[in-house]
Each structure stands twice: as C-alpha cells, then as structure tokens.
Amino acid sequence: xxxxxxxxxxxxxxxxxxxxxxxxxxxxxxxxxxxxxxxxxxxxxxxxxxxxxxxxxxxxxxxxxxxxxxxxxxxxxxxxxxxxxxxxxxxxxxxxxxxxxxxxxxxxxxxxxxxxxxxxxxxxxxxxxxxxxxxxxxxxxxxxxxxxxxxxxxxxxxxxxxxxxxxxxxxxxxxxxxxxxxxxxxxxxxxxxxxxxxxxxxxxxxxxxxxxxxxxxxxxxxxxxxxxxxxxxxxxxxxxxxxxxxxxxxxxxxxxxxxxxxxxxxxxxxxxxxxxxxxxxxxxxxxxxxxxxxxxxxxxxxxxxxxxxxxxxxxx
Length: 316
Ligand SMILES: *[C@@H]1O[C@H](CO)[C@@H](O)[C@H](O)[C@H]1NC(C)=O
Ligand SMILES: *[C@@H]1O[C@H](CO)[C@@H](O)[C@H](O)[C@H]1NC(C)=O
Ligand SMILES: *[C@@H]1O[C@H](CO)[C@@H](O)[C@H](O)[C@H]1NC(C)=O
Ligand SMILES: *[C@@H]1O[C@H](CO)[C@@H](O)[C@H](O)[C@H]1NC(C)=O
Ligand SMILES: *[C@@H]1O[C@H](CO)[C@@H](O)[C@H](O)[C@H]1NC(C)=O
Ligand SMILES: CC(=O)N[C@H]1CO[C@H](CO)[C@@H](O)[C@@H]1O
Prior knowledge:
It is a single chain. By secondary structure, the protein is of the alpha/beta class. 41% of the residues lie in helices and 15% in strands. It is elongated. It binds 2-acetamido-2-deoxy-beta-D-glucopyranose (NAG) (6 copies).
C-alpha cells in the first residue's frame, strides 16, 4: 500500500504558510505597542528641565510616548515641547509602574533598563546631561522661551550694556559675561549637613580674572536669586568698574537673559546649570559643590563628569 506522500515542494509551501500564519497570530494576539512614559515633576525650573530633558532622551531611546500635563509649569515656560500634552496627566499616569533612580546627579544605565511596553512613571531627578546627549538638538529646539520673555531678556542686556558703554566709552568687541550667584538657600543648616557647598568670592574673582585676561573688554552682569542673603552678599562682594548687578526679574526672564550673554559663570544649583547649557559660549563652573563623603556626594559620580559637561571649565 502506498501512503499519499506530498511532494517536497508542497511540503515547503505548506510549511511556509503555516509558519506565516503562526507569526501573524502571534503578532496579532500578543503584540504590545510601546508604553507611555510620564515624568514626575518636582522642584523648580532647573529641576523640571533636567527631568523633562532626561525623560525625553530615555523615551526616545526606548521608543516610548512621553506624556506631560497641559498645566505643567515646564509646558508654560516652553510652549513648544514635543510631548503628548493631555489634561489630567496625573490620573492618566497614576496606574503606571514606578521606576526610581539610584543617584540623582549621575548617569545610571540601570535606570533605563525597564520594559518599554509597560506604562511607566520615572520618579527621578535625572540630573545628568548624558541622558539627553543624543537628542541635544531636539532639546535645544524645545527649550525656547516665549517671544515676550526673550524680548524682555534682550532689553535687560541691551539696557545695561548701553549704560556701560556710555560711561566707559568701551564698545569694541565687548564680551558680556552672565554671572549667576546662588548661595542663600544652600547655607541652611540642613543643606550644609547634607553636603551642599556654596561658591566662594575667591572663586568668582578667579573666574572674572579668567575672562579679563582672555578678552580686552568684558562686562560682568550679575544675576542672583532675589533673596535677602544673596542680594546683600552680592552688593558687598561684586565690585569692579566692569561689574553690574542686575535687578532680579521673573525666573524665566533671568535664565533667558543669562542664556543670551556671550559667556557664563555659574555657582551652584540647576538654575545656573541650565542657564549655562542654553548659553553656547564658554562656561566657568564651581567644581567644589559637594562635601566629600556626605550624603549628597553619593548622588554624583566620583569624577562629577556625569553632571558637568566636559566642555565647561571647573574652578574653585
Ligand atoms: C488613580 O486615580 C484615580 C482617580 O482619582 C483613583 O481612583 C485611583 O485610586 C488612582 N490609582 C492609584 C494607583 O493611585
Ligand atoms: C498604557 O496606558 C494606555 C492608556 O491608558 C492603555 O490604553 C494601555 O493599555 C496601557 N498599557 C499597558 C501595557 O498597561
Ligand atoms: C534699565 O536700567 C536701569 C538702571 O540701570 C533700570 O532702572 C531700568 O529699570 C532698566 N530697564 C529695563 C527694561 O531693564
Ligand atoms: C567718551 O567719548 C566721547 C566722544 O569721544 C567723549 O566726548 C567723552 O568725554 C568720553 N567719556 C569718557 C568718560 O571718557
Ligand atoms: C555677544 O553676543 C551678542 C549676541 O547676544 C553678539 O551680537 C555679539 O557679537 C557678541 N559679542 C562678541 C564680542 O562676540
Ligand atoms: C570683582 C572684583 O574686582 N572684586 C574686588 C572687590 O574688592 C576686593 C577688595 O575688597 C578685591 O579683592 C576684589 O578683587
């Protein structure tokens, strides 16, 4: 008796059809689209910018959809964010799985090792430029201040510059150096115990000296948080014929003005960090921001290079 035996060709064809059918059903039944990723916004403008930029970079690298709330402050400061803005994002995101970070001021590849199919809230500060280094151009396109803020910031710079030129008669190749000073809130006992340090006046004088010896004509515009301690400190210590203390404006106007100077000098905190990052000139930063072996020191990588971009110049 002969058994009906299909030809080899038919075998191959039916096998292929079966295989295709299997792939199709598997895909159809088990395919999961990439999930949504929600930032967990905390803190003030500088913190929000780190959180947004880093979650944007992570979302991009994992093919996830970034969700923000239409009322988030960052959305108000930068109207052109490339994220899914929805009302009540809090409720949309609150059933998602939470992912944390181990160190708030360092780049940790493990923070990004989660299933991109699951909806995720990243409850983390993510203060490292390395999280968004691959999308830097996209972040620069999104972190653009509103026109009215830009106009106000430019008017401030022009105003002080004009005044300076008038009484100094220096106008050729004037380099405007934006200086941001933050000390007051970092001098609170709790902050010091945690490991925060503040920039000293000798650091600032050294940074001034750097620019004065590099350029013939400099004008230092000093911005500070409008608290009593910092205003007083600035008044006593920021002297010099090429130094002008700028009256405080709204936070976004001040950051925008700093970003429009030719170069920057920053002290501590994320507000200064972002002012410098948005400014494309040279940046001098204070590199002694953390007490060794403190709680705060654990948030950073040992060499601090996850936090400070390598093109910036550190001094103390
Ligand atoms: C999410 O928000 C809804 C609406 O307020 C609430 O009923 C629910 O308990 C929340 N879920 C979680 C996990 O917090
Ligand atoms: C993610 O959230 C969306 C919107 O709420 C929902 O449709 C989807 O099923 C969620 N995904 C998972 C894997 O839970
Ligand atoms: C311009 O500068 C002067 C002081 O130098 C100040 O009183 C005035 O408010 C400034 N105007 C603007 C638009 O910043
Ligand atoms: C600035 O230059 C103008 C014109 O050259 C001159 O009249 C004026 O005295 C100068 N002012 C100062 C402070 O040097
Ligand atoms: C400083 O920056 C302004 C733009 O903000 C630019 O017009 C000017 O040329 C710059 N100055 C120098 C010396 O590069
Ligand atoms: C910026 C600047 O020039 N600061 C000077 C202010 O005055 C002290 C003396 O009180 C000088 O040492 C600083 O160089």
